[in-house]
Design a protein that fits this description.
globular, Creatine Amidinohydrolase, Chain A, domain 1, Creatine Amidinohydrolase, 3 domains, 19 helices, six-stranded mixed beta sheet, about 35% helix, alpha+beta
């Protein structure tokens, strides 16, 4: 764990603000007899990204990353976050009273271990039960019981000290037509009810915003760059109740709900509804997603069936319409990206370009594409050492000017009515060292190793992750994150249950079998603090290959169309098969994109996709 250093100047003032906010929270804790108070990065729906109203942990600690939990005691304030954010958190917490606990590092206690150690006998552990999952809440109950103490989960103390807190997100929803969704809401509800019957459940409580959006074929904008509607849903054999804020639906959507048997209810009524479910009823819910307040509202006699939401697997397997649409979206996205690459490579050093202005240029090119709605996440445009921070976000203070040397890492994507994209390219802006090229080539080989995989059905992402890491492990290098994640269809770009990662967190469900129609990213990288970062990311569609006496073989189709910078590749360090794969990929990129480019752009792309 990292103890804070002293700050000075403006930074010192900001850290003083953090100290004042934490002390204000402690005063609220004293008034209620709470010894430890937890502030996670979460909304009422266990969303990965949250609206400004829910950024209480950021408000209290000053750490702006999308993942992390703060634990406040009377003596100490700690922040737990994962390897994607170690560098960023270390810098943002420097000089503040907040101690960084690097999750997964040797000799760093897990959050629950810390609570167990620091909660005094007969003490009280507090948190807002609406932003803590039932699974975590039950574990906190157990820890408090072991200490003969109690939990206090009914109050939002962070909100009590947050001056000028933004209101709950409240934006209009819109219908995703069936020509894009590929299946009606009524059909999806029918499949969900069939899954409920298989589990013996009469009621299903669904709180995941992406699952609800997928199920009802409705999208919104209540989370920045995640097109969802703040809502809960309850599905029974006879009804579907949709709990959401007033004024979100227009007449078309009200008619859509009526046509598909969906009854609209007030957003906050979910807790009262849960309390009225009759004892003896069997309720299907995912304890790792449903919030502790809802779970605690259920009567003692209600039988709870803890299992993943069936919609999670359903929406992960894209239908034929979605897959065809997605390929169209990637062509448009690839056209925008190639135009950006050409501009960047020919303009750097001749005009002033910064991280932020480069990101703005890329977004403007995407916005020119048909059916574009929004970027799919805040673009990561990271030059030089900034790219060593996996989720770096350029600010006016850190916005580096690009020079005709070194690497620019750009991780970006778009939301189109035809699907969502996520692509990363590391771009050589000028001369590179031999070491930089070796690392770039190793990452390229890692990307190819996974993309070229052929495997038997039944394999999971954990079985294949080594194919990407092997070239890096051979160099004694690694990256502190998974290799890839599922992609939502006009939803969150990070979607489960499919993923590539060898490492399993304690208590985490095993990742799923890779099925035909799943779309997963392939994004190995190298991150050297203080020097540079390299990542190459494509999306892969899982497809069936041949079937024989050994079983059903599977393979991947790369659906991202953007050149990998050959100015940074050392072909002699690649095998013949790897060079062949890269050449075939680049030939596909040229074939897909060239019809939509000008003559000069086609000529430039032909050079960028030359055979090696």
């Amino acid at each position: 764990m990292e103890r804070p250093a002293c700050g000075s100047g403006q930074a010192g003032k900001e850290k003083g603000v953090t100290a004042g906010r934490i002390e204000a929270l402690r005063e609220q804790m004293r008034q209620r007899g709470i010894d430890i108070y937890l502030v996670p990065t979460a909304d009422f729906h266990a969303s990965e990204y949250v609206g400004d109203h829910f950024k209480a942990r950021q408000y209290l600690t000053g750490f702006t990353g999308s993942a992390g939990t703060a634990a406040i005691t009377m003596e100490e304030a700690g922040l737990w976050t994962d390897g994607r954010y170690f560098i960023q958190a270390s810098r943002q917490l420097e000089g503040s009273p907040v101690v960084l606990f690097r999750q997964g590092e040797e000799n760093v206690p897990k959050l629950k271990e810390y609570i167990r150690e620091h909660l005094r006998e007969g003490g009280c552990l507090g948190f807002d039960g609406r932003v803590v999952s039932a699974k975590d809440g039950l574990e906190y109950e157990k820890i408090a019981s072991e200490r003969h103490g109690r939990i206090a989960a009914s109050e939002d103390l962070a909100g009590a000290v947050w001056e000028g807190r933004p209101p709950l997100p409240h934006n209009p929803a819109f219908l995703l037509e069936e020509r894009y969704a590929g299946e009606s809401a009524a059909s999806k509800l029918g499949r969900l009810r069939e899954a409920m019957r298989e589990k013996g459940a009469g009621v299903h409580i669904l709180t995941s915003l992406c699952d609800i959006a997928w199920l009802l074929n409705i999208r919104g904008s209540d989370i920045s760059h995640v097109p969802v509607v703040l809502s809960f849903a309850v599905v029974t054999e006879e009804a579907c109740l949709w709990f959401l804020q007033e004024g979100v639906l227009d007449e078309e959507l009200i008619g859509h709900c009526r046509q598909n048997g969906v009854t609209v209810m007030p957003y906050g009524e979910i807790y009262g509804y849960a309390a009225r479910i009759a004892p003896g009823e069997k309720v299907l819910l995912d304890e790792s997603v449903v919030n502790y307040r809802i779970f605690s509202s259920l009567a003692p006699g209600v039988e709870k069936i803890d299992a993943p939401n069936p919609t999670e697997r359903m929406k992960a397997v894209k239908n034929e319409t979605e897959l065809a649409n997605l390929q169209n979206a990637h062509v448009k996205d690839g056209v925008a990206f190639v135009k950006f690459l050409r501009w960047l490579k020919t303009s750097v050093g001749r005009q002033k370009i910064t991280e932020r202005s480069a990101a703005d240029r890329l977004e403007s090119l995407r916005r020119e594409q048909d059916l574009f709605l929004d970027v799919s996440f805040d673009t990561i445009s990271a030059y030089g050492e900034h790219a060593a921070m996996m989720h770096y976000a350029a600010t006016p203070e850190t916005d580096a000017e690009l020079r005709p040397e070194g690497f620019l890492l750009v991780d970006s994507g778009g939301h189109y009515l035809e699907g969502s994209t996520d692509v990363t390219r590391t771009i050589a802006l000028g001369p590179l060292s031999e070491r930089q090229k070796r690392h770039f080539t190793a990452v390229c080989r890692a990307n190819i190793g996974l993309a070229a995989a052929k495997f038997l059905h039944g394999c999971r992402g954990a079985n294949l992750d080594i194919l990407a890491r092997e070239p890096l492990w051979q160099m004694g290098a690694d990256y502190r994150c998974g290799t890839g994640h599922g992609i939502g269809y006009l939803l969150n770009v990070h979607e489960g249950p499919n993923r590539f990662s060898w490492k399993m967190r304690q208590g985490e469900r095993v990742d799923c079998v890779l099925e035909e129609g799943m779309v997963t990213t392939d994004e190995p990288g190298i991150y050297l603090e203080g020097e540079y970062g390299i990542r190459t990311e494509n999306e892969l569609i899982c497809k069936k290959a041949e079937k024989n006496e050994y079983g059903q073989f599977m393979e991947f189709e790369t659906v991202t169309y953007a050149p990998i910078d050959l100015d940074a590749v050392l072909p002699e360090e690649m095998t013949a098969a790897e060079r062949g794969f890269l050449n075939d990929y680049h030939e596909m990129v040229y074939r897909k994109l060239s019809p939509f480019l000008t003559g000069e752009e086609r000529e430039w792309l032909r050079e960028q996709t030359r055979a090696v």
